[in-house]
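Deliverable D4.2, example record:
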Amino acid sequence: YDELIRTHTGDRATLEMMGSELDEARRQQRDEQHRKLLFQGASYVWGAQARAIVKMAAVIPGDKPGYMNFATISGFVDFRRLRPDVTWTMAKRDSSNDDGSEMPSARWYPLDQSGPTDAPPLLTEFCSQPIPELQRIETTREIRYVLPAGEIGNTGALTCLIGMVQKDLPMFRTPENSYGTHSARCEVPAELMNVDMFCHQSLPFTHQPEVTLHSNVGEYAYSKDGQELPFNERVKDLGVSSVPPPAPEIPRYRQLMESFFEMIGYPIGEFHGYRVKIPYPAYPTALVMGYPLLEP
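Output generated by the structure prediction step:
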């Protein structure tokens, strides 16, 4: 055994990590243990953390034939700075083709149409008070909403949720796109990430999405082609129900979901739902849900 360590790893801890894929029974538990260590280290290095990351999304019929819309709510519950000089991107939206190039046809709009058009698309009813002040930064590729530096620890903790809808996503395959993908990024070290994806029943090709975990570093930040990472969490099939599924770790989650479906204009009973819940998600990664587009 000592010779095996000397030859292949140099120490026992590294050997156990290399052999973790061989132990099916304990793999998920071991994954979580290592991710918790990553959460603690990343919180220290980056100077920020959150109790929970919220990702809620729905694929709905588009405003014109042959297209779909994609409505989202995302944000952080109990986000805390650990250093006063820390600024943080609270939400980021982008659109890209299969090869990672820009998709100019798909545009993002505020989910809540009742708010000011020039303000960040915050869901103020579900944000902490005072309402977080965010700076909008837009480029040809993405929109980001950035929280400035501020108070640290629990006294500076805040909850920030943003709602947007992406319109005019192609339903049929094109030379640029054969696959529909939606990324739920782990955007801050967090204790939990809860991802709920709902697919309208009139779009059956979006059902049973393939779920993979990818690197979200550098050049791969805009592409599902980032290195695929081990993913052993369960994808829970929520089925079709008129009752929002509970998420006790997230305050007022049922009210948030009811408000979400009211804003998109469809009852929850018309959707098939899927959930992925990840304790201590690895930062920075992207959970990708995808499905093949229809043939023309």
